[in-house]
Design brief:
The complex is a heterodimer of chains A (233) and B (107).
Chain A (H helix, E strand, L loop, with lengths): L2 H12 L4 E6 L5 E5 L9 H10 L3 E5 L2 E8 L4 E5 L3 H12 L3 E5 L15 E3 L3 H8 L5 E5 L4 H12 L5 E4 L3 H13 L4 H4 L2 E2 L11 H17 L10
Parallel strand pairs in A: 5-6, 5-8, 6-7, 8-9, 9-10
Antiparallel strand pairs in A: 1-2, 1-4, 3-4
Chain B lengths: L4 H13 L4 E10 L9 E5 L4 E3 L7 H14 L3 E6 L3 H4 L8 E8 L2
Antiparallel strand pairs in B: 1-2, 1-5, 2-3, 4-5
Classes of the chains: A alpha/beta (233), B alpha+beta (107).
Chain lengths: 233, 107
């Protein structure tokens, strides 16, 4: 592989753009297909299938075995609420290979002392979230317990392509949240996208356990089809 | 922190820019209960230093040896590991699966 090709692949990932590296396993030729060029590529339909599945693999092309290295953007977790759970979640999410961004307008919470080595925005969600942008590789987790802050983020998240939206709070709290969202005009289908109470039911009590249950739920959303079977099997 | 296979590609680029000989090994096919999924990488430098995994430890030693060859020759190799290949490779996957690994030099 040429260093220039490898560098370009890494550059595309850093810019959160999908790309597929096409390697002919027989004659060893290689090319990089960017998301924007996908439609014009001779292997267009094979490449877009692979990209949709997020799966690398061997395909046959004109009698040659060709390996597709599929590169989808790194998953990004936008945590609204610079709370104790978020502090526990940051290192765990990093282990899983996800990027984390912390958003909380309360500066006492969103401080670098409490969150070293992670991007923090001490601003209101309705201001900062549109600026951060949203794609289908983004998960939103709303953890402040404060409707003023969480709702502002939810309104944006529900209009985005985010693959996961979770909100902290009991069933009762969520019931009130649903009423507020309905009053804002969100229908049942939109509201059903919210995972609440947030996280897998593992009896979590401590902040770290709750962080684990949230990341478990995000992983399941990523790896399982709606019927509970594994994607790609 | 090298959590994902994407980080390993970054590692490969960094090592190459430092002037090291670098090979990239990628799991391209698996059959049966293979320990690491297709697309998993192992990055190897000319000294035999490696990061990542293609089998969770079963065949990494053999892949590193082959990678040093590839760094030397510049010619990519397609390797196969599995129970059936034990005589050829003297290493095998304890899980009974079979994997195919593509090893290429970063030029």
């Amino acid at each position: 592989m040429d260093l220039a090709l490898l560098a370009q692949l890494n550059q595309e990932r850093a810019a959160r753009r999908a790309a597929v590296l096409v390697t002919d396993l027989q004659n060893h030729t290689q090319r990089l297909v960017l998301e924007a060029e996908l439609a014009r590529d001779p292997l267009s339909s094979l490449l877009s299938d692979a990209l949709r599945m997020g799966k690398s693999g061997v395909v046959e092309s004109e009698g040659h075995k060709v390996f597709l290295t599929v590169q989808a953007p790194v998953l990004r977790i936008i945590a609204v609420g610079a709370v104790h759970i978020s502090q526990a979640l940051v290192p765990m999410a990093k282990q899983l290979g996800h990027d984390v961004i912390i958003v909380d307008p309360r500066e006492a919470f969103a401080s670098p002392e409490r969150f070293p080595d992670v991007t923090i925005h001490a601003e209101w969600p309705d201001i900062v979230l549109p600026r951060l942008g949203a794609d289908r590789y983004t998960a939103y987790i709303l953890l402040t317990h404060d409707p003023k802050i969480d709702d502002a983020a939810l309104v944006f998240a529900l209009k985005s392509d985010a693959f996961y939206i979770g909100a902290l709070g009991s069933r009762k709290t969520h019931g009130k949240r649903v009423e507020r969202l309905q009053a804002l005009g969100f229908d049942e289908q939109a509201i059903k996208r919210i995972h609440a109470p947030i996280g897998l039911n593992i009896g979590a009590i401590s902040p770290a356990e709750i962080a684990l249950s949230i990341l478990g739920e995000i992983t399941s959303k990523l790896r399982l089809k709606p019927d509970g079977t594994k994607i790609g099997h | 922190m090298l959590a994902t296979d994407d980080d390993l590609l970054k590692q490969a680029e960094t090592w190459r820019r430092e002037g090291r000989g670098v090979a990239l090994a990628t799991v391209v096919e698996t059959w049966g209960s293979a320990p690491r999924p297709v697309g998993s990488h192992l990055v190897i430098d000319g000294e035999g230093t490696f990061m990542g995994s293609v089998s969770g430890g079963c065949v990494e030693g053999a892949v590193v040896t082959e990678a040093l060859d590839v760094i030397e020759s510049g010619t990519p190799k397609l390797l196969e590991f599995g129970i059936a290949d034990e005589t050829a490779w003297k290493v095998g996957l304890s899980c009974g699966g079979r994997i195919s690994v593509y090893v290429e030099k970063v030029n």
